[in-house]
Amino acid sequence: MSSDWLLGGFTLTGLSFWMFCSSTDSLNEHSDLYWYKQEVNSYPKFILRRSRYSADNSPEFVKDRFDAELKDSSVPLMIQDLHVCDSAVYYCALRSDFDKNSSL
């Protein structure tokens, strides 16, 4: 699966914010999308994983504030009630076991 991922956004304390991560290919039932947060002088921390059938959040990143919905070709990350401590670099990553042309 060839993908071009785009990410963009800005920060406003106290408000909700969406970061977009999209693929040139449609996400399929075997796709898992991950979001990570990396603060200065630290390693990337797992925020959440989304797939067609499940959703997992790290205990540090509660679903009330950090959420994402898997769509056809994107998985926007929503952060509610932004805080200064949310300032960081955010990464998205796609894992797909099969692409649309694969068969068993």
From TrEMBL:
<dbReference type="InterPro" id="IPR007110">
    <property type="entry name" value="Ig-like_dom"/>
</dbReference>
<keyword id="KW-0393">Immunoglobulin domain</keyword>
<keyword id="KW-0675">Receptor</keyword>
<dbReference type="InterPro" id="IPR036179">
    <property type="entry name" value="Ig-like_dom_sf"/>
</dbReference>
<keyword id="KW-0391">Immunity</keyword>
<dbReference type="GO" id="GO:0042101">
    <property type="term" value="C:T cell receptor complex"/>
</dbReference>
<dbReference type="InterPro" id="IPR013783">
    <property type="entry name" value="Ig-like_fold"/>
</dbReference>
<dbReference type="Pfam" id="PF07686">
    <property type="entry name" value="V-set"/>
</dbReference>
<dbReference type="InterPro" id="IPR013106">
    <property type="entry name" value="Ig_V-set"/>
</dbReference>
<keyword id="KW-0732">Signal</keyword>
<feature type="domain" description="Ig-like">
    <location>
        <begin position="19"/>
        <end position="104"/>
    </location>
</feature>
<feature type="signal peptide">
    <location>
        <begin position="1"/>
        <end position="26"/>
    </location>
</feature>
<dbReference type="GO" id="GO:0002250">
    <property type="term" value="P:adaptive immune response"/>
</dbReference>
<dbReference type="InterPro" id="IPR051287">
    <property type="entry name" value="TCR_variable_region"/>
</dbReference>
<keyword id="KW-1279">T cell receptor</keyword>
<protein>
    <recommendedName>
        <fullName>Ig-like domain-containing protein</fullName>
    </recommendedName>
</protein>
<keyword id="KW-1064">Adaptive immunity</keyword>
